[in-house]
Amino acid sequence: MTELLRTSGDTTVPDTVGHERRGGADVTGVEPLLDVKDLQVTFSPRRKMFRERVELRAVDGVSFQLFPGETVGLVGESGCGKSTTARGLMRLVEPSGGSVTLGGQELLGLPAGKMRKARKDIQMVFQDPYSSLDPSMLVLDSIAEPIDVHLDLDRAQTVERVGELLQRVGLPPEYMYRYPHEFSGGQRQRITIARAIAADPRILVLDEAVSALDVSTQNQVIGLLEDLSRDADLTYLFIAHDLSVVRHISDRVAVMYLGQIVEHGDVDRVFDAPAHPYTEALLSAVPLPSPKLQRSRERIVLAGDPPDPSRVPPGCRFHTRCKYVMDVCRTVVPLPTPTVGSGEVACHLHTSGPQLAGRSVRELATPHAVVAG
Ligand SMILES: Nc1ncnc2c1ncn2[C@@H]1O[C@H](COP(=O)(O)OP(=O)(O)OP(=O)(O)O)[C@@H](O)[C@H]1O
Ligand code: SF4
Ligand SMILES: [Mg+2]
Question: Nearest C-alpha to atom 7 of ligand 2 is from which residue?
């Protein structure tokens, strides 16, 4: 069984989104490639009206693991902290606490030079292929940047490698002598993927990498990512709004709300039997393939916007919007519970009240019929 949940400050959050594991490895003895523990990223923005600084815990005790070759999806509403988690673990923003080990090496606290070297193994692809390529640079020079930093190749070898990389992402090698404005959105995203894999990383963090593309281009780029993961043995952290895409590509999924992971598990378990009311509500917005099923399913509308992350509600952070809310939820942080099948959930329904004990929250027929445990 996974180590369960960890208490972080005044909150209790899932300790680890990982395979069934013993110590640092899963039951098959495989060590995680990336091990994120209790990651904290805090911002201190100024409030507009009064100009005083507030503390905003954008990532508040996030833990998960990536095992070699798998894809973990990270989902949640806008502003829940997905990008900040990604940027924090890569130290593109400096975390205020926690631990991130990559292949056994602790990244937090690494001096800048060593951190630059470590980034060879973990690269990021962003949503916007227009802004992530320098318009004044030839594709050749954009893709060559990580090669120059991380690999010891001369110019001729670099040009040859860039040609191979372009072919690998489905583009003719001669495109290296063109500028970004000469390409469509899908082609530009292929070029950013070529650049991301240029120095042979082990992990790609894909932050809404296909979100800006039309559906057919999206499908092509997802196909490319699947091929790359198989052929180049890549491991993905896949961040996306589109839950159908996440289901398609991910092996496991973690659901974030207000800076924390509230549920995680194998992707089919989470999508077919969500254990957290927030997951259930998120999933109810995903269209079903059959119109009959679609008509018969309840659409759960999440009331209001997520609370201001600088004013996190006490108890369960989701209690202000949860249709199953009980008295206990308003004051007590929910303890973690293993879910039936795989993963964990942090919700009182599983430990008090109706005692779901890890089963799907869909088994609760009548919201509000529940009582405080
Ligand atoms: N540089 C920053 N300074 C202050 N606050 C920030 C900064 N970056 C992010 N935030 C805040 O941190 C929280 C998490 O933001 P983040 O961008 O990680 O969310 P997200 O889940 O990626 O959202 P989206 O789905 O819209 O991309 C938000 O409240 C956001 O306003
Ligand atoms: S039932 Fe309570 S603990 Fe569970 S998500 Fe709703 S408010 Fe949170
Ligand atoms: Mg984001």
Answer: 319
